Amino acid sequence: MPRPPLRWDLFCRVIDNHGDAGVCWRLAADLGARGHAVRLVIDDTSPLAWMAPSGATGVVVQPWPGETAAPVGDVVIEAFGCDPPPAFVDAMAARPTPPVWINLEYLSAEDWVERAHGLPSPQPCGITKWFLFPGFTPRTAGLLREPGLLARRARFDGRAWLAARGWAARPGERVVLLFSYANTCLEPLRDELAQAPTLLLVPPGPAQATAAAWAPRPNLRVLPLPYVSQVDFDHLLWSADLNFVRGEDSLVRALWAGAPFVWQAYPQDDGVHLEKLAALLARLGAAPAVAALWRAWNGAPGATWPGLPPAAAWQPALARFSSQLQAQADLAGTLEAFAERQAAGSCA
Hints:
single chain; seven-stranded mixed β-sheet; about 350 residues; 14 helices; alpha/beta
């Protein structure tokens, strides 16, 4: 049965690198497309100008702290523990029927996520806050996957799309997308890519600044890209033969793209990102050559550049992992079902 529409308040603070805004916008747009009314309150609206230039059905954007005079929604999501403004929490507590309050956490493949997912936390205002974790198993909240996404990818002609944008690959060129944080392996990657005809697409960021200083090489065409919308970022991933991605949002989109990819976790001084990397490699069941490349790309101690494995080294594990993930509920659908269950319980 179709789910009844709900009013959602989604709070987001942009820390850096636009990943927080990217995840929150995709979630807001997905919920809006399912018929819900979403108010996205975000402390930096500027990334949305290029992420979502046309907006999205059902989504209203407000700068932080939002309009507390407006009615509180049925569901309140604080993304990544950002804490709604105190005045809004007061309005939540004053609502005759308390909203469903969700702290949507960061994505991780680590085992502890299953144990922490769904835990309640009673708050001083009298409302229970629920901690929900995206993840890669049925015992988590799942991943963002809009209805029809994979069908759209199956119909997509990447080479034609690149040509229409003025980024056409020449005959015989492989297409590689390079989206990374600062990385000591950029030069070994450059040298290896230059051994065969390659079109290297580089979105804005540290890698683009580094690549701009490279001397020309006969086999390597480096094309710096402008900021693109989230829809077109998906198209870039679908158009490439090999994707280098970073952080949370582009990791999930690379999984749905189906092409070989290398992930760079957000670097952390205490090395926690390497634990996240190891957990995802274990879930993926990556071949040893792929795992060695990922570890080197993430600066693991003692890891040296191993070279790029052939595409066949990626495909069996990727196909198996993607099939498992597609069989699980998606993030927006999980949040819908959870909110309905909690709301029904509060009215019982």
